[in-house]
Specification:
Distance between the termini: 10 Å
Structural class: mainly beta
Helix content: under 10%
Number of strands: 9
Largest sheet: 9 strands, mixed
Number of helices: 1
Bound molecules: zinc ion
Shape: globular
């Protein structure tokens, strides 16, 4: 059964990230500066190189890999919630290579921005808190519904 509850849009900020910045760290810095505890975000642009992860469901570990070449960001989609009392950005990224082939995964530190435009929607509501989820081994939202 799905577990969910209402959230309310509060405000939206829109901007661009620093050239050569780290994508997930830059997004996290915006959230920290704005005091965001709950939100959703999207972004697109280009990166100089990328580092993403694939969650191995059997091993219950993230396998990280790097793509050490310029790529287009087709889409970053993510959210902001709380883990251990601190806001955390969870984001996935779809990238494209020069021939248009797509690749992507769980966005990890080590993805270097070339240019990136983002939109962050700040939400209000009861906190969404991440905690260990036994069936998946992942830090998923607890206490919903
Ligand atoms: Zn993920």
């Amino acid at each position: 059964m799905p577990k969910y509850r209402d959230v309310t849009p509060q405000r939206i900020v829109m901007g661009r990230l620093a050239h050569d910045g780290d994508l997930i760290e830059e997004l996290s810095a915006v959230c920290k500066a704005e005091g965001v505890k709950l939100g959703r975000l999207e972004a697109f642009g280009a990166v100089r190189k990328a580092r993403v992860a694939f969650y191995d469901q059997e091993a219950r570990t993230y396998d990280f890999f790097e793509i050490d070449e310029p790529l287009e960001i087709l889409k970053v989609i993510g959210n902001v919630s709380l883990k251990d009392g601190e806001p955390i950005v969870h984001a996935h990224i779809t990238l494209s290579k020069p021939d248009g082939q797509a690749v992507g995964g769980h966005l990890a530190p080590g993805t270097q921005v070339f240019a990136c435009e983002f939109l962050l929607e700040i939400l209000e509501g009861q906190p969404f808190t991440r905690g260990y989820d036994e069936p998946t081994g992942l830090p998923l939202w607890e206490g919903l519904g």
